[in-house]
Amino acid sequence: MSDFLSVFLAVVLALLVAPMLQKNTDTVWANLRQITFVKKNGVLVSTYLLGAVFIWVGLMIVAPQLYMVDFSFRDGAIGGDPEAYTLKNYSYLIFGRDSDENLFNLLHLQIFLKTILASVGVTLLAFLLCYPIAYYLAQSTKGGTTRLFLIALILPFWVNEILRAFAFRILFGSSGVINVVLMGMGILDEPIDFIKADIAMYAGLSYAYILLMVFPIYNAIESLDHNQIEAARDLGSPWWRIHYRVVIPYAKPGIASGCTMVFMLSAGALAVPQILGGPSSLWFTQIIYDWFFTGGDWSRGSAYAFVLLFSCIIFVLAVMKFFKVNLGELAK
Amino acid sequence: MTSDLIQKYMVRFYIAMFFLYLFGPLILMGVTAFNSPTFPTAIPIDELTMKWFSVLANDKDMIKGIKNSLWIGLGVVCLAVPIGLAAALLMSQVHKKAQSIYYMIVVSPLLTPGVILGISTLVFWDRLGVWVDADYDSVFYSGIFLSVIGQSTFISAYCMLIFLSRLQRFDRTQEEAALDLGATNVQVFWKILIPFLRPAIGSAAFLAFLTSFENYNTTLFTIQAESTLTTVLAGKVRLGTNPSLSALAVVIVCITLVGAVTHEIYRRREMKREALAAEAAKRAADIADKGMAPV
C-alpha cells in the first residue's frame, strides 16, 4: 500500500515540480507568466482548464500507465508477497516454469512473435489494398463522386467491430458462403476449414482497419498538386516511377500514420482473434486476457501488457525514423 | 491507346472488387437475418422470416447490455468533451519548450492499444480502492464507472483533435475586442469561444458517444461483472449463435444510415449558412467601403 502511495505521490510531485524547476531558473519571469495565464483566462476558466487537463493527464494517462508498469514487477500470484519487487513475471514470458523441459517458454514466445509478425503482415496487406483506392479518390475523381465514395467507405465501419467479425465467420465458416459456393461448383469435395487455418482471421483483421489506412493516405495525396503528376508523365516517367518518386514521398506522413494505426490496432486486437482465430492458435492479447480473467494473476498480465506496449512503442519509433516524420504528423 | 483503355478497366475492376470486399460480408450477414435456419446461413435461402427480430427484442442480456452501453456513452460524452476542450485550449498556452512533450503525452492514448488502457485503468483504480479502503460496491470497483474512465482516456484525445482543428480558424482578435469592451473572461468564454466552437462540440460529442458505444478492447477489462452491448455480443458470437445477431446488425445499419444522412444534411445546411454569412459580411464590407469613399 505504501508503495502505491509513493508512486502516486511521485506522479503528483513530478507534475508540481516541473513548473517549479522553471521558476528556479528564472523566478521573476515564471511568476509573471503564471500571472498572465490567470489574467488571460480569468480565475474560473483557468481552474477549469488546469483541473480538467490535470485529471486527464495525471489521473487517466500518466498515473495508471506508471502504476501498471510498477505492478508488473510485483508478485501477484496467490500466496506471493505483493510488496516485493520481482522480475519473475517477465522471466516467465521468456523462460517459463523452472520445471519445464524446454529452456524457453516456446509457446508464449511463439505467440508473441506470431502476433508481431502477423500484424506487420496485416499492415502491409492493408497498405497494398488501400493505396490504390486512396490515390484514385484523391486524384482521379471529382467533388460529388469523391464524397459519395468516402461515405461508402465509412458506412461499413458504423457496424460494430464484433458484428463485422461475425460477418466474416458467416462467410468463412465450414457451412459458410465460400465453402457452399465452391462445393456447389464442384471445385471442392469437402469444406476447407478457413478458421482453423487462420485465413479468416487475417482477412478479418485487414478488413477491420481499412478505414484507418485509407483516410490518412487519402488526406495526404489529396493536397498533392496534380500538375506534378502531369509534369512527371510529360517527362516520360512510367506510372510506377511516378508513384515511387512523386506520390509516395509526398504522401509519406499519411502512409506512416496509417501504418502505425493499423499495426497498433492489429497487435492489440482482441475481438477479431477471439471470434475468427482458430481454436489452437492464440493472439498475444488473448494470453493477457487469460492472465487477468482465468489465470488470476494480474501482475503477470500487466507484465505481458507492458511487453505489448513496448513493442508498439518500438514500432512507432521505427516508423517515425524510417519515414522521417514526427509525432504531430502521425496523430492527425 | 488500347493500353490506356485496359488500364482504365483494370482500375474499375479493382475498385469494384474493393467495394465488394467492403460490403459483401455485411450484405451476406444481412441476408442471414431473414433466413430461417438456426445457424446463420446466407445460401441457400430456406424461407424468408422475421422471427429473428423478435428473438432479438426478447433477448434480456442484450437489452441490458444496450442500456449499460447507453449510460457509459453518456458518461463518456460528459467527461471526454470538456477534457478535450480544455486540453485543446491549453495547447496554445503551454510554453513552447514544453509544447512537444505536452502534445506527446496527450496523443499517446491514441497510439496505445485499447487493451492496455483498459488494464492500466483497472489495476490503478483497484489499487486506489484498496488504498482508501473502499467498499466493493463503491465507484472504485464499479464496471460502469471504470469503463467511462478507461474509454475517456483515449476518446478525450479524439475530442481534443477535433477542437484543435476548429480552433485553427479562430480569430483571436474577437476575444481581445470583447475584453477591451469590458467583458469578463467568463463572458468571453461563454459568449465568444463556445458559440464559435459549437459545431465542433456537436461533432466531438457525437464521435465520443459512437466510439464509446462500439468500444470492446478497453471495456472488456474495465467492465468486470457488468456487461455492455459489445461484451454481450462477443460472448454470444464466441459460443456459436443464431441469426438474431445478424438482425441486430441490420437494425444498427438502418439506424446509422438514418443518422449519417441526417448528419450529412445538417452539415451541408451549416456549410451553406456559413458561406452565405461570409458573403453577406463581404458585401456589407464592400458597401461600407464604397459608402465611405466619397466622404
Automatic annotation (TrEMBL), chain B:
Q: Which residues form a coiled coil?
A: none
One cellular component term (GO) for this entry is: plasma membrane
**Claim: ATP-binding is one of the keywords in the record:** no
As for membrane topology, the entry says: Multi-pass membrane protein
> Per the annotation, which location comes first and is thus the protein's main one?
membrane
So where does this one cross the membrane?
A: 12-34, 70-90, 102-124, 144-167, 188-210, 245-266
- Cellular localization per UniProt: Cell membrane
- Describe the location of the ABC transmembrane type-1 domain by residue ranges: 66-263
Q: Which PANTHER family match?
A: PUTRESCINE TRANSPORT SYSTEM PERMEASE PROTEIN POTI
User: What family does the entry list?
Assistant: Belongs to the binding-protein-dependent transport system permease family. CysTW subfamily.
* Protein name from the UniProt record: Spermidine/putrescine ABC transporter permease
